[in-house]
Design a protein that fits this description.
This protein has 339 residues and is of the alpha/beta class. The strands form 4 sheets. A 7-stranded parallel beta sheet has the order 3-2-1-4-5-6-11, sandwiched between helices. A two-stranded parallel sheet has the order 7-10. Helix 5 links the parallel strand 5 and strand 6. The radius of gyration is 19 Å and the shape is globular. Bound molecules: nicotinamide-adenine-dinucleotide (NAD) and thymidine-5'-diphosphate. Nicotinamide-adenine-dinucleotide binds next to helix 1, helix 4 and strand 5.
């Protein structure tokens, strides 16, 4: 079994590669990644020399490079994690989101058709459903919830999802889609809420909370997401969408306070900054379908997962210190320069 994993030098893709190599001895994992600001080859250091792993630097929008790799590897499956993934960056510069997230997806699926790939899996997001009101805790996203996006990022992911379903219906491409809630865990890029707050708290820098911090996200430990994708690509029904989430809703401000407690830092570091434009209020997944059909349930409780994650950032300072000193520094100054 050969699986091409696109975006495997990023947060979830790298965790997926580690998970699959551990769970499926005998599988060959081929990572295709452009190494944008969010991709980091050092993340894959521990697997780079293995016979059952190959890394190829390429852009999923580069049809020639993609086809060359498919011709060489003749993959059985493709799991697409490659994406521009940060909402705030999509507000600043939507164009690259449309290119990578929509056009890149179509290039990959064209190659899948040409080379008769048995399964194309699209890693999507709960953000395609838009948001839920804060005062309706009874409402959850199901697979039937209409797509209703708020940001250029989520719109590009929704566009890709529609294209994936269209390739299934029109060309009979065997596809599946997973729509997961917010992940956290090792190798999470420090522009996102949890790793950013850990890095800043460790440096005793201000902790920038957008608005009042009352927005709610449904947090899932990254390994639980990887296990869900593993189940879907092997046992999921072709043409189906599966929501993935752990019923673990927290306000942003709660998350930041938990991190302060874990790192023994004062909550006085918290600074309320200008709210994100179009800021989604609440995400909350109903994971009943994946539980019923594939027996998936999250295994890591948030209290344990956040401790493991904080420990990881303490033990791996070199990994994120190098990142926050590069191009990311300019982004940070632009976003948060005033505080
Ligand atoms: P990430 O930003 O950490 O990693 C993205 C990776 O894709 C990077 O390695 C980057 O170099 C690569 N990449 C970007 N553009 C590329 C291109 N044109 N060609 C090849 N490689 C390219 O993202 P992540 O958080 O790991 O998210 C992975 C996927 O999961 C995304 O599709 C995202 O929409 C989805 N998702 C993320 C979350 C979350 O909480 N992080 C939740 C649900 C779904
Ligand atoms: P983020 O990690 O960017 O994920 P997403 O927007 O895809 O859910 O943000 C999670 C939440 O944290 C979101 O409501 C925005 C908020 N947030 C802050 O309050 N401050 C920050 O510095 C960042 C990056 C996010």
């Amino acid at each position: 079994m050969t699986i091409i994993v696109t975006g495997g030098a990023g947060f979830i893709g790298s965790n997926f590669i580690f998970y699959m190599l551990k769970e499926h001895p005998g599988y060959r994992l081929v990572c295709l990644d452009k190494l944008t600001y969010a991709g980091n080859l050092s993340t894959l250091e521990s697997v780079l020399g293995r016979d059952d792993f190959r890394f190829v630097r390429a852009d999923i929008c580069d049809r020639e490079a993609v086809e060359r790799l498919f011709a060489e590897e003749k993959p059985d499956m493709v799991v697409n994690f490659a994406a521009e993934s940060h909402v705030d960056r999509s507000i600043e510069n939507p164009g690259i989101f449309l290119e990578t997230n929509i056009l890149g997806t179509s290039v990959l699926m064209d190659a899948c058709r040409k080379y008769g790939v048995q399964r194309y899996h699209q890693v999507s997001t709960d953000e395609v459903y838009g948001d839920l009101p804060l005062d309706r805790p009874d409402l959850f996203f199901t697979e039937e919830t209409p797509l209703h996006t708020s940001s250029p990022y989520s719109s590009s992911k929704a566009g890709a999802d529609l294209l994936v379903l269209a390739y299934c219906r029109t060309y009979g491409l065997p596809v599946t889609i997973s729509r997961c809630s917010n992940n956290y865990g090792p190798y999470h890029f420090p522009e996102k809420l949890i790793p950013l707050m850990i890095a800043n708290a460790l440096a005793n820098k201000p902790l920038p909370v957008y608005g009042e911090g009352l927005n709610v996200r449904d947090w899932l430990y990254v390994e639980d997401h990887c296990r869900a994708i593993d189940l879907i690509i092997h046992k999921g029904r072709v043409g189906e969408v599966y929501n993935v989430g752990g019923h673990n809703e927290k306000q942003n401000i709660e998350i930041v306070k938990i991190i302060c407690r874990e790192l023994d830092r004062s909550e006085e570091l918290i600074v309320h900054v200008e709210d994100r434009k179009g800021h989604d209020r609440r995400y909350a997944i109903d994971p009943a379908k994946i539980h019923r059909e594939l027996g998936w349930l999250p295994e890591t409780k948030f209290e344990d997962g956040i401790k493991k994650t904080v420990r990881w950032y303490l033990d791996n300072q070199k990994w994120w210190q190098e990142i926050i000193s590069g191009e990311y520094q300019q982004y940070y100054e632009k976003m948060y320069g005033g505080i």
